[in-house]
């Protein structure tokens, strides 16, 4: 069973529109033991540091031990909260339990579809590029034909002028 997000009820656009403070508030509402654990850890570290600065090393050591315990409790809250949310989603029928193989297979299929879409886009870009090159070649071909016609006309005029020059010379 995969771990659900607390934002499963929101679509992607709604998630992107939420501000950071709203996201944090939503997470705190979903699992209130995590922020409590974080605050407890911060308080124990602060007390331990102040005791150590004041020279009371034995008490500081006890507070550092309490810090480790509060971090462990926070980690436990994260794990239990996630599994609770997952179980709740499963019980509501929102999510069917899936094996890791099924999840990996789905990811591979999604990746294959994405690659296929990218390949299709690349082929379309290449096709468009080939069409543009053909149009350019046709345009240049027409220009060359027009230039050939003009060249033929000039050549014909030149021959006529040569005939006139030759006929005037012979007279």
UniProtKB/TrEMBL annotation:
Keywords: Coiled coil, Membrane, Mitochondrion, Transmembrane, Transmembrane helix. InterPro entries: Hypoxia_induced_domain, RCF1. Gene3D superfamilies: 6.10.140.1320. Residues 120-171 form a coiled coil. The chain crosses the membrane at residues 33-50. GO terms for cellular component: mitochondrial membrane. Pfam families: HIG_1_N. Residues 1-96 form the HIG1 domain. GO terms for biological process: mitochondrial respirasome assembly. PANTHER family: HIG1 DOMAIN FAMILY MEMBER 1A (PTHR12297:SF3), HYPOXIA-INDUCBILE GENE 1 HIG1 -RELATED (PTHR12297). This is Respiratory supercomplex factor 1, mitochondrial. It comes from Hanseniaspora uvarum.
